[in-house]
Amino acid sequence: MRYIIIEDEQLAAKRLRSLIESIRADYEFVAKFDSVESASISLPALTYDLLFMDIQLADGLSFDIFDQIQIQKPIIFTTAYDEFALKAFKTNSVDYLLKPIADEELANAIKKFEQNFDKPKPAPVVDSDLEKLMKALQPSGKERFVVKVGEHLKTIETPDVQLIYSQDKGTYLFTKAGKRFLVDYTLDKVEEMINTNQFFRISRKFIVNINFIKDIIAFTNSRLEIVIDHFEEDQIIVARERVGDFKSWLDR
Known about the structure:
The chain is an alpha/beta fold.
């Protein structure tokens, strides 16, 4: 298989080529281009089977190449940005890899290419697959919650939530203003919706926001106690089986 790399960062291009060679030593490198202009001029005259294409190039977006020439070969997109995923899948894309590219993810993308490259069109991306992809590319998680206050609806910005906890079969948000609000979700459902870089479920009862942890104190039976400003309803205890994962989460 012959491949071309379109990438404006020299180190990134060198690392990608090295990864490809380690995965498929029989793949033949053809050329590298670092701009929309150079790729548009040279690609039509070259013979190749696969493109590795960064999205943001020195003189624009790689999608601009499609406006100048016709590309029918499969493409594996490699980029540091996730906002172009939908647009990428509207092209003849095999996969969409976020930098820094992991060996296993690249190997899986190449395997996908090898399973589908001889078809006249790339395998369609079904809605469920695209939904999974977009969910994986959205580290921000849920942005806000809608809560009911009396006869009114109010929005609570997720970054303002210090703590999420269950009590008396209800799920509550505890905000930095020291107020609590009932939400129409189970704690399990909330855990699926929020940004796991910012929030961590420490027990069956509590999910904490790393930005509002005031103190962490050693507790009995190898557990930990967390202190959150203004929260006095109960002790916030990290379950013993979650202590190791919690420490790893803190130390990212």
